Amino acid sequence: MKIETALPTIVFVTVCTKDRKPRLANDPCHALLREVWLGARSWLVGRYVVMPDHVHFFCTPGDRELPLGNWVRYWKSQFTKLHEVADHRWQLDFWDRRLRSDESYDEKWWYTLNNPVRHGLVSRAEDWLYQGDLNELRWH
After folding, report:
1. Count H helices, E strands: the chain?
2. What order do you get walking across the sheet with 43-50 strand by strand?
3. Is the pLDDT of residue 140 over 60?
4. Cα separation of 52 and 26, whole Å?
5. DSSP string, 56-111
6. Distance in angstroms (rounded) separating the CA atoms of residues 51 and 114
7. Strand partners, 14
8. 14, 48 Cβ separation under 8 angstroms
9. How far apart are CA 105 and CA 113, in angstroms?
10. Mean pLDDT in the chain?
């Protein structure tokens, strides 16, 4: 009898700034996003790219059960509170997609990693300063 093991839950998420205002691609915002994500352990952020007006990241459930939407609202509110810039706001909603295979994960990461190149911000993806990997998310 073959025993099937469940694939881990890895979700690809995109969150935009309100009115798509370009406020995120700078050292202070990048550092604050990392700090907030590391402190909000209900979901663990893996690879990510911070663009001027949105962020893309992969995440997986962490040490507490909390719906993804609640967690996203939480870290957005923490970021806004700690950032202390009154007009810095996020769109209310976000986009997410649960990944189904390591092939999908690799495809989405390639898309995410090359987003700054497609937007003309750098000529090579590795030159974009506002990207990283906070937790290793694995399929196996």
Report:
1. 4, 5
2. 95-98, 11-16, 54-61, 43-50, 131-133
3. no
4. 8
5. EEEEEE-SS---HHHHHHHHHHHHHHHH--TT--B-S--EEEE--SHHHHHHHHHH
6. 11
7. 56, 95
8. no
9. 12
10. 90
Contact 13, 57 (CB under 8 A): yes
Sorted by where each starts, the structural domains of the chain and their CATH numbers stand as: 11-133 (3.30.70.1290)
Contact 26, 50 (CB under 8 A): no
Band (pLDDT 50/70/90 cuts) for residue 102 is: confident
Q: For 119, which DSSP code?
A: T
Taking each helix axis as running N to C, give the angle between helix 68-83 and helix 27-39, from 0 to 180 degrees, rounded to the nearest 10.
Answer: 130
Between CA 131 and CA 140 the distance in angstroms is 24
Question: pLDDT digit string (tens) for 54-96?
Answer: 999 999 999 888 999 999 999 999 999 999 887 788 999 999 9
Q: Which residue type is seen at 110?
A: W
Looking only at Cα atoms, what is the longest distance across the chain? 60
Distance CA 114, CA 49 (A): 9
